Amino acid sequence: MRFAEDPFAILARLDELRAADAPTHGGHVLSYVYDSGLAELDELAASAIRAVQPVNGLDPTTFTSVAVMEREVVAFARDLLNGDDDVVGSVTTGGTESCLLAVKTARDVWAAGAGSTGSPVSTGSTTRPRLLAPVTVHAAFQKAAHYFGLELDLVPVLADGRVDADVLIERMGADVALVVVSAPSYPHAALDPIAQVAAAAAERGIACHVDACIGGLVLPFWPDLPEWDFRVPGVTSISADFHKFGYAPKGVSVLLTRGRDRHRAQYFATTRWPGYPVVNPTILGSKSAGALAAAWAITRALGREGFAELAASCHRSTTALVELVETIPGLRVVGSPVGPLLAVATDATAPADQQVDPHHWADQARAHGWHLQLQPGLTQPDGTTLPRTTHLTITPVTESVLPELSAALVTAADEVRGVPGVSSEQVLASLPPGLAAAPLDAPLDAATAFGILQSIGLVSAGGGLPDRMAPFIALVEALPAPLTQRLLTELIARTFE
Ligand SMILES: Cc1ncc(COP(=O)(O)O)c(C=O)c1O
Fold it and tell me: What is the CA radius of gyration of the chain?
């Protein structure tokens, strides 16, 4: 067949598009991408993807390679997370899918009246089940509660990002289908009090999920941690992403579950249609085996020792960066980060003219070619506030750029020291009159939402977000969440359009 467009031209166009992306290699982006720094590992992953390109992961009986690779990837994770023979699992397409499935499974087990044992014991209840977690739990659990009809009960955390176990335990009740704790939390790298929470949950027959999407494949090698994995008896499931610290391309995570009966509740099966019998362990039907094959190849290439070596590199870089930030006047590290990530806030004990706003700092670092991630401040359910922060995820490649990165972080802080952060008052005053008080009971239609985005200068003819993100995130902090969520939906939808 004659192609409508020359393949070389198509790939040249793709190269052009990719050149406009944030750099996925080289350590300049400190979130989203997890770079092992090993080009040969990326090559191996690419070859593995290529080898399974036409495979449909839907059916492991027709494409038996999928079953073998999945079994071995699950076994690798189970071994790292100290699971015994009673721990089984599934490969999913990412952290969000693992979290969604943990919630769906817990809801279904709860509805069957089975509690944390996974075996049905009564006829269940008609109450809406509750999902209990610290406010720092990943937003994927908000999505899960929304999708699967659970009441979301988010517990405030302390200023350092840690949750008080007793506060969480006090809220446990018969309507709780699942309590979620993180290892560690994404916003502040806090390791939740997993042993205490899981023990209390087990006593009450409540399932307990450990979200180790980000930490699951690196914390097994982190020194001096309390037990947080399947060694903790009340832990019923753990999620761990291979497309994070498993260094695989996007599209692969595992959800490990204690107990075969609980795991089976994750499945969806139907024979009640005139087509092929559908038996899906995860959310998708037809699916790629590419990222699974890449993760499988990487586990074989690196082995446990390779993972340990890369984790050690992350540990050295994280320690160095924590120490560095602590020496930068006007900034501070939030809490005591556990794992290769950290949040940086203003040191409010410094004199005002010495303080550094973390968002101005991130914008300035960006101007020097380093992409840090801005995190908005948050008013918690009890009215206490968590300060705005800037997030850094450290990967093995970081070590190779540590001197340049450190110098840029110091320079960026020097350049914005004493510049007050964008305040809510400032940002609200810059809005078109009446917007902040816009009625939220009437949903905004797409045209109105787009008009608002234009009036506040958030959409430009050229598309894309502004270079300086501090005012944008200040807007997120200042406006009521339902309004911001609607406006951001419009912003992203228009980005695709
Ligand atoms: C702790 C935690 N849970 C869940 C997720 C969601 O993972 P994904 O982006 O792969 O869907 C993340 C992502 O950063 C995470 O850090």
Answer: 23
Site residues for ligand 1, CB cut-off 6 Å: 94-96, 99, 138, 140, 182, 186, 211, 213-214, 241
Length of the chain: 497
Q: What residue type is assigned to position 103 of the chain?
A: V
For residue range 127-170, list pLDDT tens digits in order: 799 999 999 999 999 999 999 999 999 999 999 999 999 999 99
pTM over 0.85: yes
Domain ranges of the chain: 48-298, 424-496
Asked if 158 and 167 touch (Cβ cutoff 8 Å), the reply is no
Residue 215 Cα: closest atom of ligand 1: 1
Residue 462 pLDDT greater than 60, yes or no: no
Distance (Å) from CA 348 to ligand 1 centroid = 30
Confidence of residue 61 (pLDDT cuts 50, 70, 90): very high
- Could you tell which of 98, 138, 141 is best to mutate to test the pocket of ligand 1, judged by most ligand atoms within 8 Å of the CB? 138
C-alpha 451/C-alpha 271 separation (Å) is 48
CA angle 446–452–454, rounded 5-degree value: 100
Between CA 483 and CA 479 the distance in angstroms is 7
Output the pLDDT for position 437: 60
Query: Rounded to the nearest whole angstrom, what is the distance from the C-alpha of residue 160 to the centroid of ligand 1?
Result: 20
Determine the Cα–Cα distance for residues 142 and 154; give it in Å rounded to an integer: 9
List 87's β-bridge partners, or say none: 258
The residue nearest atom 9 of ligand 1, judged by CA position, is 95
User: For domain 48-298, which architecture applies?
Assistant: 3-Layer(aba) Sandwich (3.40)
Q: Is residue 84 within 8 Å of 75, Cβ to Cβ?
A: no
Please name the residue that has the structure tokens 């990719």. Answer: 18
Q: How far apart are CA 362 and CA 285, in angstroms?
A: 40
Query: How would DSSP label each residue in 69-97?
Result: HHHHHHHHHHHHTT--TTEEEEEESSHHH
Tokens of 213: 């999407």
